Amino acid sequence: MHCHITVQQDRFDLAAEEAALRAVAGDAGALVAFQGMVRGHDAATPLAALFLEHYPGVTEAEIGRIADAAAGRWPISAVRVVHRVGRLVPGEQIVLVLVASAHRKAAFAAAEYLMDYLKTEAPFWKREDFTDGSSRWVDAKASDDAAAASWRD
Amino acid sequence: MSIRILYFGRLKDVLGRGEETLDWAGGDSAALLAALRGRGEDWAEALAAGKVFRLVVNQQVVRGEVPIPDGAEVGILPPVTGG
């Protein structure tokens, strides 16, 4: 399984990322792409921006561990994850997960698994900066923990 | 011995620092957390058992109690919120 993980401030280019995945994916019949975007209206006050920080080195290693676990469950040939950090305004991309596999079901399932564990295991922290000047660190969601736990059965 | 501690997310704001160098007697991860909680109410509250998600020692995520070697980099992680 080919695995490539990047944490960066810059935007990513979906076409370029897809081309890089396809270059190593082999005879893949399925390619699933998930992009997460910054939502603008999660709270009563509109969001001005999200600020994300991470733990350099540890974050990449943890995502790699999650990708290896996915490869142990489904026959996937390549994974590519790009996660952005820094200041991101509503509507901007925040995360990209690309998965290639011979078959559709494995690619869908592995992409969802990667996102579920990325949200609950990878060391990223989000701060919401609102339009009224206030800000707060986002609390971990019980629903995200439940989504990740659902794969353990 | 001397270790370097890194704080992340809200811990950075609540504790007023992103990192520090700590001289202490040494011990395991539980002893380190106990020493930090002993700094006062703010610290005890911020580093309460349910609020620290995980420790990272020398870039390795650790589970349970582990020894902290001299010169270690210790990351103290609040619950994560990526994706």
UniProtKB/TrEMBL annotation, chain A:
Pfam short name (any one): MoaE
Record flagged with keyword Translocase: no
User: Its domain of life?
Assistant: Bacteria
Keyword match Protein biosynthesis: no
Point out the coiled-coil segments of this chain: none
What metabolic or biological pathway is this protein involved in?
Answer: Cofactor biosynthesis; molybdopterin biosynthesis
Reactions this protein catalyses = 2 [molybdopterin-synthase sulfur-carrier protein]-C-terminal-Gly-aminoethanethioate + cyclic pyranopterin phosphate + H2O = molybdopterin + 2 [molybdopterin-synthase sulfur-carrier protein]-C-terminal Gly-Gly + 2 H(+)
Which EC number(s) are documented for this chain?
2.8.1.12
Entry keyword set: Molybdenum cofactor biosynthesis
Family listed: Belongs to the MoaE family.
Outline the subunit composition.
Answer: Heterotetramer of 2 MoaD subunits and 2 MoaE subunits. Also stable as homodimer. The enzyme changes between these two forms during catalysis.
The molecule here is called: Molybdopterin synthase catalytic subunit
From TrEMBL, chain B:
Q: Which residues form a coiled coil?
A: none
Domain of life of the organism in this record?
Bacteria
What the entry lists under InterPro entries is as follows: Beta-grasp_dom_sf (IPR012675), Mopterin_synth/thiamin_S_b (IPR016155), ThiS/MoaD-like (IPR003749)
Q: Which SUPFAM superfamilies match?
A: MoaD/ThiS
> One Pfam family for this entry, by name?
ThiS
Q: What is this protein called?
A: MoaD/ThiS family protein
Source organism per entry reads Vogesella oryzagri
